[in-house]
Amino acid sequence: MAELTEADRYLLERIGRGDGEGWQQLVERYQGRLLAFARSRLSRKEEAEDLVQDTFIAFLEGLKNFRENASVETFLFTILRRKLIDFFRGKQMRVTFLQEALAKSSSDSSYAPVSLQAPEETASFYMRREEQSEALRAVLADTLDGLLERLRKAENFRDLQIVEMIFYAQLRNKDVARLMNMDEKAIALIKHRSLKEIKSHVAQSTKLSRDEIMAVDSPAWEESPAATSMLTEIWESTRPTCPKRTTVGRFLLGTLEKPWQSYVDFHLNQLGCQFCRANLDDLKKQTTEEPRAFQSRVMQSTIGFFRPRA
Ligand SMILES: [Zn+2]
């Protein structure tokens, strides 16, 4: 799950004070998983290293925009992902195997959760909509968090997987049914129940306008491009179902309890979360010498951000 840890908070505070050693520690902590993520997309090692180096520079440049409701890891992954999309000249990049498979198989344009803005709209309209969707986004993120936390506490891994596939990967009931070896009607029921919970939570929110509440409450809201793109975007920026790195480590050692072991296996290998797979790859090869050389390269390129030490 994406949250700012005490250790990260401490490092950020040191970096904010211009402490180069704090920065060095942060680079050391995150470089491996970022390189693994970049290398899952790029065949050449040098290209991956260039993009990760740029990511660290952009992180420092954008530090004042860092929102504390995301983890440092997710913030870094988000920057790197944008750099990868730029690198591939704007080609969309899915972050799970299932989304990728879906994008490839759908010939129609119904799966295109990107920009929805019409060009003729005025700047003030944009601004207003930005503010509105920011509030809705926050309420939805909160609602999903509650729903997923409840499923996790109950160790209801079956529904957890189904909810991930429906609302994150935007799979159709038919496909979810096939993957879970379940009846399509049963999947539809779980989707219906989850949506009811989401919608009633949104309806009770005091932070939203009437229009927003009514839009979410409308029957086919969840099928609209605005809703699917927002749900996916929330998932990717808060990663509410991603296991912690320590959990991925325990998965690797096979020391998780059986239901968790198979849930993490699903998340990594069936849903195919690329963020968590990058952590897995990084954990697998943490013993090599490679990290040191790369780290000193990043330190060289960011030296201007820190005062020389007296
Ligand atoms: Zn994940």
What does this structure look like?
The protein has 310 residues and is mainly α. The chain folds into two domains: 6-93 and 287-305, Rna Polymerase Sigma Factor, Chain: A, CATH 1.10.1740.10; 123-241, no CATH class. The chain has 15 helices and no strands. Helix 12 (245-253) packs across helix 14. The radius of gyration is 21 Å and the shape is globular. The chain starts with 5 loop residues before the first helix and ends in a 9-residue tail after the last helix. It binds zinc ion.
Gyration radius, in Å: 21 Å
Low-confidence stretches: 107-127
Strand pairing plus helix content: what structural class?
Answer: mainly alpha
Instruction: Profile the largest sheet.
Output: none
What is the count of β-strands? Answer: 0
Portion of residues within helices: 55-70%
Descriptive key words:
binds zinc ion, mainly alpha, 310 residues
